[in-house]
Amino acid sequence: MDKIYLKSILGPIKIEGKNEKITKVSFINEYIEINESPEYLKECKKQLEEYFLGKRKEFEVELELSGTDFQIKVWKELLKIPYGKTITYKELAKKVENPKGYRAVGNANNKNKIAIIIPCHRVILSNGGLGGYEGGIEKKSYLIDFEKSID
């Protein structure tokens, strides 16, 4: 497994991949300097840096999605949520043709291993609440507000 680290306004981020595809982007506690990383990881890091500078709204990296068919369907739908916009878990459930499956959609969201690039942070509760986020509610709130301020 290849890896590279990024210092971001939200703290250190670890980017992992294999076979020229991104497999994981996660918030971590400690930044680690790595001198040698494959070009595809350097490109992903660069794109994330551009995102945090407000210069990138879409990512152009190859992803390797690993999960159940339903989870992958949800993650692919997340990729369609426009930058700076949010939808509810209920709306997302309708989009994946499982209108009563908002809890299942929430669980699939929770299993997303590619933070920010697959924008699960853009999914909120029907009452406007944020719901959960693997990186923490503060990070989810920041990402939503950040994107709205740039959009």
Automatic annotation (TrEMBL):
Q: What is its EC number?
A: 2.1.1.63
Q: Which UniProt keywords apply?
A: Cytoplasm, DNA damage, DNA repair, Methyltransferase, Transferase
Query: Any one cellular component term from GO for this entry?
Result: cytoplasm
The entry lists its GO molecular-function terms as:
methylated-DNA-[protein]-cysteine S-methyltransferase activity
Localization in the cell: Cytoplasm
In its keyword annotation, does this UniProt entry include Zinc? Answer: no
Catalytic activity reported: a 4-O-methyl-thymidine in DNA + L-cysteinyl-[protein] = a thymidine in DNA + S-methyl-L-cysteinyl-[protein]; a 6-O-methyl-2'-deoxyguanosine in DNA + L-cysteinyl-[protein] = S-methyl-L-cysteinyl-[protein] + a 2'-deoxyguanosine in DNA
Q: Where is the active site?
A: C120 (nucleophile)
Give any single GO term for biological process.
methylation
In what residue span(s) does the Methylguanine DNA methyltransferase ribonuclease-like domain sit? 4-65
Query: Top-level EC class, please?
Result: transferase
- Report whether Transcription regulation shows up as a keyword of the record: no
> Which residues does the UniProt record annotate as the domain Methylated-DNA-[protein]-cysteine S-methyltransferase DNA binding?
69-148
Lineage: superkingdom: Bacteria
Q: Report the Pfam families cross-referenced here.
A: DNA_binding_1 (PF01035), Methyltransf_1N (PF02870)
According to its UniProt entry, what is the function of this protein?
A: Involved in the cellular defense against the biological effects of O6-methylguanine (O6-MeG) and O4-methylthymine (O4-MeT) in DNA. Repairs the methylated nucleobase in DNA by stoichiometrically transferring the methyl group to a cysteine residue in the enzyme. This is a suicide reaction: the enzyme is irreversibly inactivated.
| Cross-referenced PANTHER family | METHYLATED-DNA--PROTEIN-CYSTEINE METHYLTRANSFERASE
Q: Which NCBIfam families match?
A: ogt
Belongs to which family?
Belongs to the MGMT family.
Miscellaneous field: This enzyme catalyzes only one turnover and therefore is not strictly catalytic. According to one definition, an enzyme is a biocatalyst that acts repeatedly and over many reaction cycles.
Full protein name: Methylated-DNA--protein-cysteine methyltransferase
| Protein's organism | Tepiditoga spiralis
- What gene is behind this protein? ada
